[in-house]
Design brief:
Layout lengths: L1 H27 L9 E8 L10 E9 L3 H29 L9 H17 L4 H63 L4 H18 L2 E4 L5 E5 L2 E5 L2 E2 L2 E4 L6 E4 L12 H36 L15 E2 L2 H4 L1 E2 L1 H5 L14 H4 L2 H7 L8 H41 L3 H35 L1
Antiparallel strand pairs: 1-2, 3-4, 4-5, 5-6, 7-8, 9-10
Helix pairs in contact: 1-12, 2-5, 2-6, 2-11, 3-4, 3-10, 3-11, 4-5, 4-6, 6-11
Length: about 450
């Protein structure tokens, strides 16, 4: 009886020590990303005598807290946040290309350009007025070209980021497949797979934010990863992703099936939206401003005459198309007297007539003209940035709430763990006291005999 009592008490000490070790591990990893709170489950050992006395206690399993629904919700919301955040960063950079309102912006340069025509109209025979028009026209073409170049750099940068995301994702997919194999093997052998599962959780969280992946876990611990209806990881299989297509139709495709991943969330989806939709649209609108400027100015010049009575149609101010292709006519740049400032071809009246230059100056606010076209573009860009900022703010709240709900179940609550530690220590002391009691009792019996 004494030996049985000592054995039962010793098993209690071992079991409570295992529980305290588990609590200590929880506290040590309270701030570790992806760590899931563990719980040591104590079970009773069956006894072998006819009286039905138990054989003590033991830690049967160390389980992890889990909630599949909350985990899926946290992954989806973090993926959605990553998507709008990636887009926000690109759009904010695009907005910075156009410092509006500001003295160095294209809008201010357009205003100065039209004012130069007004100055020329007051004194058309003054060569300085024509030279100022040419200089400001060259400044405009330079500003448009530089803005277009910066948008191209943003496009290249976004594509480079996308390539990095895909490369890192491929590494992560392979790691999840490898962990699947290790977890299944550990469970099959009776080993503790919890540390491997923590690694798996961190990787699955990374996939949610990178490509908007969702995952499900089988009873054997193996995770299946999908994006839309495309399976990227299942058991030991891991797909490889690749970037295909050109801006405007770029996509991330599965190497095994060739199917394009749906843009359901993650950094990749935000970058693809910028690459395929927003940045090409900004380039197109900027080109439209440049072409509108050339068309508006050259059309008005064609209606006028130079100081020598020659038609302005022969010497347009702008040549080329698009923001990067628009240039000042070299002939006009070399001789500003070729500017058709006059409204008449009759001499000598054409020399001092500035009516066509005045008509040009009045185009600064022409409906459908370059100024209003540019203003509409900037307003649209600003609205899109503000909308994205609002989406990031709202989605941050949603993602934080989802993560808080998940952590309430699977995270480590230090206060709760300390309470459990105190209770376990008391149980440990009780087992130690039982050993002392049994030992004293046996000593008393031996003395009595």
């Amino acid at each position: 009886m004494g030996n049985l009592g000592l054995s039962i008490a010793a098993s209690g000490l071992d079991a409570q020590q295992a529980v305290m070790d588990t609590i200590s591990q929880n506290l040590a990893n309270a701030s570790t990303t992806g760590y899931v709170s563990e719980n040591a489950n104590i079970t009773t050992l069956p006894g072998g005598d006819a009286l039905g006395i138990g054989g003590g206690a033991q830690v049967g399993t160390v389980t992890q807290a889990s909630d599949g629904l909350l985990q899926a919700n946290a992954s989806q919301t973090s993926g959605a946040l990553a998507q709008v955040t990636a887009l926000q960063q690109v759009l904010t950079s695009a907005q910075a290309v156009f410092p509006e309102p500001g003295s160095n912006g294209i809008s201010a340069q357009l205003s100065s350009f039209w004012q130069a025509w007004d100055t020329l109209a007051q004194n058309p025979s003054d060569s300085a007025g024509g030279a100022q028009v040419v200089d400001l026209a060259q400044n405009l073409t330079t500003a448009l070209s530089q803005a277009s170049g910066q948008l191209t750099q943003l496009q290249d940068s976004a594509q480079s980021q996308l390539g990095s995301v895909v490369g890192q994702t491929n590494t992560t997919l392979a790691q999840v497949a490898e962990l699947n194999t290790q977890i299944v093997a550990a469970k099959g052998s009776g080993a503790d797979p919890n540390a491997l599962i923590d690694q798996q959780n961190r990787l699955l969280s990374t996939l949610a934010t990178s490509i908007g992946a969702v995952s499900s876990t089988a009873d054997n611990g193996s995770a299946t990863v999908r994006v839309g209806g495309i399976t990227l990881v299942q058991g030991s299989f891991a797909d490889t992703l690749q970037v295909s297509g050109a801006p405007g139709s770029m996509a991330i495709t599965s190497a095994s099936s060739g199917a394009a991943l749906p843009t359901t969330g993650g950094n990749a989806s935000g970058l693809l939206a910028a690459i395929n939709q927003y940045l090409p649209s900004y380039q197109s609108q900027l080109n439209a401003v440049a072409n509108n400027l050339a068309s508006t100015v050259n059309t008005q010049l064609a209606a006028g005459y130079t100081a020598t009575g020659a038609s302005g149609a022969a010497n347009p101010l702008f040549t080329g198309t698009g923001a990067t292709g628009l240039t000042v006519n070299p002939a006009v740049a070399a001789n500003s007297q070729l500017i058709a400032a006059s409204g008449t071809s009759a001499l000598p009246d054409a020399t001092n007539d500035g009516s066509n230059a005045q008509a040009m100056a009045n185009l600064y606010d022409a409906p459908g003209g370059p100024d209003l076209t540019y203003q509409a573009f900037i307003q649209s860009l600003g609205t899109q940035v503000q909308t994205t900022n609002n989406q990031v703010q709202a989605q941050t709240s949603v993602a934080n709430a989802a993560q808080a709900n998940l952590q309430a179940v699977v995270g480590v609550d230090p206060n709760q763990q300390m309470v459990q530690m105190l209770a376990t220590q008391q149980a440990f002391q009780a087992s130690a006291q039982l050993i002392q009691t049994v030992s004293t009792m046996m000593q008393s019996l031996l003395t009595a005999v």
